[in-house]
Amino acid sequence: MRWQPTLDRTMIVAPHPDDDVIAAGGLIQRIVAGGGEVSVVYVTDGENNPWPQRYMKRKWMLGADDRAEWGAMRRREALASLERLRVPSEATRFLAFPDQKITALARRGDMRLRDELRQAIESFRPTLIVSPSGRDVHSDHRTIAWFTHAAAGAIDVTTYVVHSAPRADRLIGTVILSEREQRRKCEAIECHASQLLLSRARFMAHAGPTESFCAPEFDLVRVDSTVRQWSLALAHALGVVTGAVPAPIGSRVQPTADVQDRAGDVTGLL
Ligand SMILES: [Zn+2]
Questions:
Q1: How far does the centroid of ligand 1 lie from the alpha carbon of residue 1, in Å?
Q2: Superfamily (CATH H level) for 9-252
């Protein structure tokens, strides 16, 4: 059956400032152009981002003040980026959970993030929640997927993968960006200047002509053990260093043009 989301009020859950535009910069434009509303919930400020921080500040040891300053800068970048996509700053919510430490919170049974996501959902009343994926190689993304699914209730959910490739067997929708949409998405990604310092090619690779959205993952999300978290962190680090995209977790199957075709462009579904 073809996926037919109601996009009128779409909430995007972004583990870090930039995931929203990387994963859904085209979808956001499509919704805004169709008269729908977009809300973005940033779970962390992306403040624990040491290599670009060291490079920019020419400083090896980073303290709490450095991280706070970096997080504030990343918030500004996120707002500038959304402005390029015509999403106003009032449509954003920054939850300021600790960057790179979300899985540790979940393992301790700390459910405050689920509760804050529920509040955001009650306040915005989304028709669709765009969640990170439990199959992403980044542990913040996997655990935030678990929290988001726990908060979603009966609301329609779709998922996106940033640090890996989407699994072909989970793909349910694509956005094929027009040249104009792609150009504007590039401009929005460019607003995240701090992330382009050391990883420009990797970031701009997300500005391609297609965005992929996957099925909800009520059957897949879970909280990682320490061993699983560290083994996948290694895969993530190797991907960052080598520039290679890590294989999708749990499947070697790559999406094909045929599968993307069946998944269908969400154009015109508003
Ligand atoms: Zn992220």
A1: 30
A2: LmbE-like (3.40.50.10320)
